[in-house]
Amino acid sequence: MKLVFLGVGKMGLPMARHLMAGGHAVAVHDTDAQRLVLAQAAGLTMATDLGAALAQADGAMSSLPHDAALQSAAAVVAQHLSQGGFYMDTSTVSVAASAAVAKLFAPTGRDYLRVTVSGNNHMAEAGQLTLMASGPQAVWQRLAPLLKPWGSVQFYLGEGEQARLMKLVINLMIGQTSAMLAEALSLGSKGGLAWTDLWQVIGASAVASPIVKAKSVQLSQRDFTPTFTVPQMLKDIDLILAEGNALQVPLLQTAMTRQMMQSALAQGWAEQDYAAIIKVVEQSAGIHQE
Description:
Blueprint: E1 2-6, H1 12-21, E2 25-29, H2 33-41, E3 45-46, H3 50-55, E4 59-62, H4 67-80, E5 86-89, H5 95-105, E6 111-118, H6 121-126, E7 130-134, H7 137-143, E8 153-156, H8 162-190, H9 195-203, H10 210-219, H11 230-247, H12 252-266, H13 277-284
Parallel strand pairs: 1-2, 1-4, 2-3, 4-5, 5-6, 7-8
Antiparallel strand pairs: 6-7
Helix pairs in contact: 4-5, 8-11, 8-12, 8-13, 9-10, 11-12, 12-13
């Protein structure tokens, strides 16, 4: 297939590389010149004339940072993509923004698929993402094998925006896991338990979910190098709270976790992993860790 991939950030670049490794002709586009340098170094072709590249493509894919980026990219794709082509977006965006894109594509004769992914950039590199798809079922069934290098665990959830909502559900639980760890670790530390002992026991306990085990690799060494930054998690929490408001679902704990993320931001930890909220609770408890 001839594919155009828009957005080669930490998630998009390995996904585009996997497609290229699968034998597909992949041209990439990004507004960040540094990301294009990395993409070119990986052997990917640049879509220097985006409109022309889309006109010759079988499909377009994107991994974008927010609603506005999706809507901007979708407008270009809807205008230039070859007739009969598909547009597949993997971004974490609002249900409302995605629905607006679906409305834009409806009269064009081009298919629109939402294929959200769960996992971080390391999992994207390893092809271990979980894929959650919604949109035309026949199109998904045709394209699902194409995405096997992204991850073998794939779910089809419905014809509409189900994949967007499922992604928010998962990210709600990820955010809440970090808040749970922040309080639990602070309680144990203040009581005299060694930091490494805490992680070893938690990792062997009934609460050792995959996300807890993944975080323990770095955090047991108090390494807050980001796989997902504080501002990125704040953005997702805001999407979650907005959807809760739209559906009239009270998300009280999530709202509190947002305040913890905001505190981490105020402390100057914007470029650290969102697990920096552990340090927020530690400060509140008078715990001074190195």
